[in-house]
Write a structure and sequence with these properties.
Rossmann fold; seven-stranded parallel beta sheet; 681 residues; OB fold (Dihydrolipoamide Acetyltransferase, E2P); alpha/beta
């Protein structure tokens, strides 16, 4: 009976006819279980009931009797309902606008909970447009902690509360995701009780306990999934790649710069990993411009020397080309430069065929490419190391494919320029060992960052013109491609057209955005890299990895439309040489800048900014929606260190106690789904 109740449709519920059921279906709710899973977005605490003599302007909740009520039209189409509400300490006026049915629904002599805003209207204090419920009923909209939901066409919080109240007892039929011993040890509510409290909190204490329970479960599932992935990965065979000290020294001596200490440590950690016949799964995390490609090159060098092939996968052709050029230069001194080959979608069939043959014969030792590496008929002789750059889509299945073709699992090094807060890294990527490049290469000057009001562009444009006169180049990034996307934000097309015809008509401008074809994008970027373009007006397609040392100015238009991590990435596109770099943040309006924009102008530390972004916007901000299935943390806050530590302990308890996942079907279902999300590479 329980499961039927949960899988039942909504049409039997009061207030849900076929048309309302269709609206619910539009937001992904067809069953009682899906309705219970629609968590509130926020809450209004109206649980404190005041007496009329004590109320002050603002949101108030009172318990009153209605003495009299009248309704009247004051001008064409405008209706006012007025009532006098009293308790033992005094009276107050209630006003409703355009709710002509109100007066008829009020019963005199009955007690009501009334929640609304006390404000001055026509020289008198009144509670305007209040919610009102008989106090003999179980209050849904007043006199409690009231849930507020994400609303959409026809689906309001009021409707959701009414419908949910009819099914809330079914929450106790929901399957329990956690083993009983873990639930008791960590003093958690049952899942049903937590869901019930989440929708209709009975007190502040029980509400806090419900949030802790749901948050704990969310983090526990992710961490358990990461642990299982790690165990599975470590049970596969991998090649053992010996460390050749003289070769490493020769390579380092040949570099035109000195390695930072962080780069040395990261390279050493990788060398220690790949010597073991257990697949490495390491994340190389470095702020923009911290020199990840060199470390990847050092790892690749050892693998090639040991007779293995290396593949580097980049998210775009542009980045793949850039990596191939950089690596060819880096390997010149050790004589490995002949063995780097590019494999991208836009190669002509004949070129592709030659590249594939040379890869299959083993002549090509270092293959750089895009997703095409996996899609094409690429037969790698003996892939020993896979480097994945800014690519969070290299999943377990793809690894298995490589395992099948070569008989062992390659070592995997993932690289990201998105600084991930430690708390998020431990939760999401518990299966990865992490190396940090947290030091900038020598000679780089910190980028000067300023917030510029949209009303004072003249001095900004003069600064841009001066930089171009000195032979530098400029990026102007806009949040949207064209006008009319509903956002009041500067568009790349409009900005480009305007500047080309007015302020910068004496300069070379080009436009770059995501809807252009790959070869068009590559052509524009190559022109920019060759110095033929002064100003590149673009969308965020230039966010990750593109390196043009001569670019010194980044202008971010409509900056309030971007996340902190994203703006920090954009800023990292300039100041990539010893010249001074500038980043100008232009908000959409001239209001006081938000805490996000102020933080960006005051700090160039990506890790510090990522922690702040996590606090301000939640985990989704770190990787948009993580590009491979939503990181479904709806309640847990990753800034809650205590919750993370407890969940990690519980995962260790679970593994130590050798609890079988198959004994807990609900947990198994959730963990299997989470395993796909927590696999970064």
């Amino acid at each position: 009976m329980g499961s039927m109740e949960l899988t039942g449709g909504l049409t039997g519920l009061k207030g849900v006819g076929p048309s309302v059921a269709a609206l619910f279906k539009g937001i992904g709710i067809s069953t009682i279980a899906e309705l219970l899973d629609y968590f509130p977005r926020t809450y209004n605490d109206y649980s404190e009931i005041q007496t009329i003599s004590k109320i002050k302007p603002g949101m108030v909740t009172v318990e009153v009797e209605i003495k009299q009520s009248t309704g009247r039209y004051v001008r064409r189409g405008m209706h006012i309902t007025e009532a006098v509400a009293s308790d033992a300490t005094g009276s107050v006026r209630l006003l409703w606008f355009n709710q002509p049915y109100r007066a008829a629904s009020i019963k005199t002599g009955q007690k009501y909970f009334v929640t609304g805003k006390l404000e001055l209207k026509a020289q008198r204090f009144s509670i305007t447009n209040p919610s009102m419920e008989q106090s003999s009923d179980f209050p849904l909209h007043t006199a409690r902690i009231v849930p507020v939901y994400r609303e959409s066409k026809g689906i309001t919080s009021t409707l959701l509360r009414r419908v949910l109240y009819q099914v809330i007892k079914s929450a106790y039929l929901l399957p329990e995701p956690l083993p009983e011993e873990i639930r008791r040890k960590y003093k958690l509510l049952t899942y049903g009780a937590a869901i019930s409290e989440l929708h209709f909190p009975t007190s502040r204490e029980s509400f806090a306990a419900a949030r802790r329970t749901i948050g704990f479960i969310e983090v526990f599932e992710l961490m358990l999934a990461a642990s299982l992935n790690k165990a599975q990965n470590q049970s596969e065979p991998a090649p053992s790649i010996p460390f050749k000290e003289k070769l490493a020294q020769k390579f380092v001596k040949s570099l035109p710069f000195t390695l930072t200490n962080a780069q040395r440590v990261a390279a050493w950690q990788i060398y220690q990993d790949i010597v073991f016949p257990v697949p490495m799964n390491r994340l190389l995390e470095g702020d923009v411009g911290s020199g990840k490609t060199v470390v990847a090159g050092m790892a690749g060098l050892m693998a090639m020397e040991a007779g293995y092939q290396v593949a580097l996968m980049a998210p775009t052709e542009l980045l793949a080309r850039q990596h191939a050029e950089t690596l060819t230069d880096l390997f010149k001194a050790t004589g490995h430069d002949e063995v780097v080959s590019l494999l991208v979608g836009s190669l002509k069939p004949a070129q592709k065929k030659i590249a594939q043959e040379r890869i299959a014969s083993g002549h090509i030792k270092f293959i750089v490419g895009t997703q095409a590496l996996l899609q094409e008929k690429v037969v790698m002789q003996n892939l020993g190391l896979l480097i994945v750059d800014e690519q969070h889509r290299f999943g377990v299945d793809q690894r298995k494919k490589l395992l099948k073709s070569s008989g062992y699992m390659p070592h995997v090094l993932s690289m990201t320029a998105t600084p991930i807060p430690r708390s998020l890294a431990l939760t999401l990527y518990g299966e990865l060992d992490i190396s940090l490049l947290d030091v900038m290469p020598m000679g780089r000057k910190p980028i000067i960052t300023e917030i510029v009001s949209p009303n004072s562009r003249e001095p900004l444009y003069k600064k841009i013109d001066d930089e171009i006169t000195q032979g530098r180049q400029v990026y102007i990034v806009c949040p949207v491609i064209k006008e009319g996307s509903g956002l009041k934000a500067p568009s790349a097309e409009q900005t480009y057209e305007k500047l080309r015809k007015t302020t910068f008509k004496h300069r070379q401008l080009r436009l770059l955005h995501g809807k252009m074809k790959d070869d068009e994008k590559s052509a524009v970027m190559e022109e920019f890299a060759a110095g033929k373009i002064d100003i590149l007006v673009a969308t965020t397609v230039i966010e990750v990895g593109i390196s043009v040392a001569n670019a010194s100015v980044m202008v971010i238009e409509g900056a309030d439309r971007f996340g902190l991590a994203q703006m920090h990435q954009l800023r990292g596109r300039v100041g990539r040489s010893t010249d001074q770099g500038y980043c100008f943040i232009v908000p959409s309006d001239s209001k006081a800048p938000s805490p996000r924009l102020r933080a960006l102008s005051q700090s160039t530390d990506g890790f510090k900014l990522a922690e702040l972004d996590l606090e301000l916007r939640g985990p989704g901000a770190i990787y948009g929606t993580l590009q491979h299935g939503e990181l479904d943390l709806r309640i847990a806050k990753l800034s809650d260190a205590k919750l993370l530590a407890e969940s990690r302990k519980a995962v260790n308890d679970f593994i130590k106690a050798k609890i079988k996942l198959s004994d807990y079907p609900e947990l198994k279902r959730r963990v299997r789904a989470a395993q796909a999300v927590v696999t970064l590479n």
